[in-house]
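#structure-requests
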Amino acid sequence: MSYNTKIMKTTMITGPTAGIGKSLAYQLAERGENLLLVARREDRLKSISIDIETKFNVKVKFIVADLTLPEAPKQIYAFCKDEGLDISTLVLNAGYQINTRLDEASLEEEEACLRVLGLSVIMQTKIHLKDLVKRGGGNIMVVSSIAAFAPTSNEFAVLYGPVKTFMNRFVEAINSAYNKDNIYATSVCPGFTITEFHEMSGTQDRMDKVPSFMKMSADDVATEGIIGMDKKKEIVITGALNRFLMNLLRFFPRPLIKIIGNALAGGRYK
């Protein structure tokens, strides 16, 4: 493969066609960052790319990739090299939700969920790390969830919280190993966030039961996430109420934490 030798500093975003990912794309472009958008829906990728380029006078490229497939990280990396993209920031935001109990979902569904929420994050980070070290540093944002901080008894979210807990620990490990190389990772942990994904995933009825004062807009989550990344924060819990609740969890007995976890687990799917 012959790689493009003309290099363009770029921020890569997975899952940018809706919700938090879309808000992140627009806010990062507004401050002048060129983007690589990664998602499965080509029609949305095209329309968002054109809109962002027109509004903010930045360069936007996109690649259609399915992160449930093991070859996706290599496919995306090869595209970056082919297009001459210097990836300075990774925003790993892609979401996945199974609206089925663990014992009823297929092995294939569960593997796809684990791959999007966990393995693809690790593999995409790993495959870009050498370049980040070589370029003298960079940023990695992983969009996690406050479900990482409390066990859940929600029968539809058995995997979700544990995977997000692992992602937070992964971010900690990256910082321990690579801060000396000027590489900083940030885990953004939203709570209940208003996006179209709840309706798409069949979880809108649960979201509708959440009091409005506990919900945040995707734009507000994105803003707090970017501020936290800029400040090189390791964990960013979005929303004052969420920060207050997560601090309280440290003093609660385990049975009560499980009850709270059941209420919080469905907060962020996309």
